[in-house]
Amino acid sequence: MKKDLLSIADLNREEIEYLIGQARCMKREGASPLLSGKTLALLFEKPSLRTRVSFDIAMHQLGGHSIYLSPEEVGLGKRESVADVARVLSRYVEGIAARTFSQETLRILASHSSVPVINALSDLEHPCQALSDLLTIYEKKGKLSGLTLAFVGDGNNVANSLLLAASLTGMNFHIASPPGYEIKKEVLNRGKRFAALSGSQIRLTNEPYEAAKGADMVYTDVWASMGREAEAEKRRLAFLGYQVDNKLLSLAKGDVLFMHPLPAHHGEEISAGLLDDPRSVVFEQAENRLHLQKALLVKLLSNPKVSGK
Ligand code: CP
Ligand code: NVA
């Protein structure tokens, strides 16, 4: 496995399946202190509930601990260059989970750090979410390959990682976004290359019902991601008709799973009450962040540090 997880595509299909297997095992049997004495830095430029708490608890359950570093404390790229922060943290900790605006910040962190850097969400990707979602899907459906995941909404970080995750693991991926909010060409082309190898189908549309028809999972996310709050009003208008509700879910398979990474905006991307629908697995998704990330941390942080950086 590579030193860092900056994109879900840093993993191949076997590595993804390995992490899912390890996470299921840890979930069943509990964790042992495999990271005793090790420390993870949580370097965050944006707010978080699930990611911050699940990484913190994961380290605790594995016998290590974490240090949360808020934007105000570190001033990443402002008080100190990203490269210098990486070099300093590498002298103290065994891993860095970073939530940044730009993917480029993660790339610089990783290239100047001698310890693994994990993408804890950037504007481009959210690989830990996608991996945990694959675990949830696997638990519920007993397989990944051949299923169809329909994403309705913004072609954002979560959608990008899910498209890549699906196309790596043989899952079909449908996405319905309003004109102007589609998934980016580079991500799509990368996904298409993986899909050609895994046999999955990718379908892009502007029509939510087309995406949802016959799907095994219907997934949505907020219309205005963190950092895009100023566009919220404009986006509310652009995304009218893209709400996931009972009517849309009824077009999917009878045993469809409704998925969302949370936080959710009730009455916007989802109809009121949908989180409590029997088809909803959103809280399993949130729980699985913990199990999957424990497997990931053990894999990445168990290696001795790379010296000389
Ligand atoms: N799903 C997710 O990443 O949640 P947080 O933003 O609360 O970490
Ligand atoms: N797309 C959302 C996901 C939050 C977990 C955001 O970036 O804000």
- What is the averaged pLDDT score? 96
Quaternary structure: single chain
CA-based gyration radius: 19 Å
| H-E string | HEHEHHEHEHEHEHEHEHHEH
Distance from first to last alpha carbon: 20 Å
According to DSSP, the number of beta strands is: 9
Spans of at least 5 consecutive residues with low confidence:
none
Provide the spatial order of strands within the biggest beta sheet.
Answer: 7-6-5-8-9
Distinct ligand kinds:
phosphoric acid mono(formamide)ester, norvaline
CATH architecture of the largest domain: 3-Layer(aba) Sandwich
CATH class of the largest domain: Alpha Beta
| SS summary, helix count | 12
Please identify the structural class as seen in this structure. Answer: alpha/beta
The CATH topology of the largest domain comes to Rossmann fold
Q: CATH superfamily membership of the largest domain, which one?
A: Aspartate/ornithine carbamoyltransferase
- Largest sheet, described in full? 5 strands, parallel
> In percent, how much strand structure appears in the residues?
5-15%
Share in helix: 40-55%
When the domains are counted, the total is 2
